[in-house]
Amino acid sequence: STRRLHRLLSDILDLSKVEAGKLTINHDSFDIRKSLRAVITFFTAAAEQKGILLGVVIDPEIPGTVIGDDYRFQQIVSNLVDNALKFTSEGSITLEAQLLASGDEQNCRILFSVADTGIGISSEAQGRLFHAFVQEQSSNIAHSLGGTGLGLVISRRLTELMGGSMSLDSETGQGAVFYFTLPFRIADSTGVEEGSMQKSFSLEGIRILLAEDDDISRTVAVQLLQRTGCRVTAVADGAKAVAALKKDFFDLVVLDVQMPILDGPGAANAIRNGQAGEEKKDIPIIALTACAMSGDRKRFLDSGMNGYVEKPVEVESLIREVHRVLEEKR
After folding, report:
1. How many domains, the chain?
2. Which residues contact 104 (CB under 8 A, 6 or more apart)?
3. Please, which of 29, 57, 80, 292 could form a disulfide with 96 given CB 3.0 to 4.6 Å?
């Protein structure tokens, strides 16, 4: 495509600048969360076209604003996500950002990863992967999918130029995870304050009932919630959610909006009408939705839901909404 050709030409120019020592790294303030979301938004349509779930997990402890090169940062992440999309025909791609321990209040180091469920990379190929214009061949799959491998080369060089490092964990047929770390100067403490606030209200031991019909989306959502210390019970449709709630105790219900048999709003309505038990009519309910147009929020609230989180689900947004509805219940 024209977009991919433009990126290839841009990478070639950038690589030549790096090799000549003429590529300049800027140091401006930017919001890492916004940058990661921008990359995800850019690739969402392509992922949906292939039926791949594209998710992002952002550590709430990451500072709100950092000093660095936003353009080059997004270039690195975009190249890794683009590479994952090329070699993943089904399953998921997850972009994750995690704050690493640092004793310095003015600086931080963040670990980023892009994990896919694609064809994987052999150990032999991994040794030569980051050399210019080398790409793994698997029954000519790489050729049919296009690309030169140059994006990985420039991404690693940019990472090193910005004071970081890049590595890979993969096996043939087992998908791949690309890791890279980058150092940043902290511009303010907004993100840290948000993280501290969230830690003050722990989700440890909170029992959550999750209803999501898509297997991959359900697995990802369960993993996101379990990382916060929640105990999660997952079912595949709204009817099973109502039945599970009638049988057991939960602190919160998370319902996907579009499900077979009984959808999210229908299940919420049934719960509010006492079909899961009179004593459970007021349990907090959160919607998971891929459509959050202006009229949708009213529809969710009218069905008895307390709030909603947009897909692809970000752990930060999900935690914030869980906190909010549980605090309102107190």
Report:
1. 2
2. none
3. 57
